[in-house]
Write a structure and sequence with these properties.
Layout lengths: L1 E3 L1 H8 L5 H10 L3 E4 L1 H15 L5 H15 L3 E2 L3 H9 L5 H13 L3 E3 L2 H6 L4 E3 H6 L1
Parallel strand pairs: 1-2, 1-4, 2-3, 4-5
């Protein structure tokens, strides 16, 4: 099991230069976990794609449903105290620290494309590329 940030989930469903890497992560470790926050973050990305007419509403809904199916039973709440302690000891946002907190709670790696998270939490966070190459 690994914790993945919303970007990794998005790359799996939205075509980009990192989509192949996201697929490789899924093959390498198919059990993904994330804080419940991931849903709102993905919906925000899908909203942008709808507004830019990159995706239709129907396609965005299909992607959202497929992502929810992928993450079924692997979504977690994190404690505010844990998140805010991480915020206080880093330069990362509370949103980012939710993913870090969950990875710490589950004692697993966090796979992310956010370089700041990797720099701030090198013991728990690993870049998408480094995870694929390991």
């Amino acid at each position: 099991m690994i914790v993945v940030d919303t970007n990794i989930i998005g790359y799996l469903y939205l075509s980009s230069d990192r989509s192949v890497s996201a697929e490789q992560v899924l093959v390498k470790d198919p059990l993904w976990a994330a804080p419940i926050l991931w849903r709102s973050e993905l919906r925000n990305v899908l909203a942008l794609y709808i507004r830019k007419q990159i995706l239709s509403l129907a396609d965005a809904l299909r992607i959202a449903e497929e992502a929810v199916d992928l993450m079924q039973d692997q979504e977690y709440e994190v404690k505010s105290l844990h998140v805010l302690r991480l915020v206080a000891s880093s330069a990362c946002s509370a949103y980012d620290c939710e993913f870090v907190a969950l990875a710490e709670d589950l004692n697993v790696r966090l796979v992310t494309v956010d370089r700041k998270i990797v720099r701030q939490f090198p013991a728990i966070a690993v870049s998408l590329e480094a995870f694929v190459d390991s």
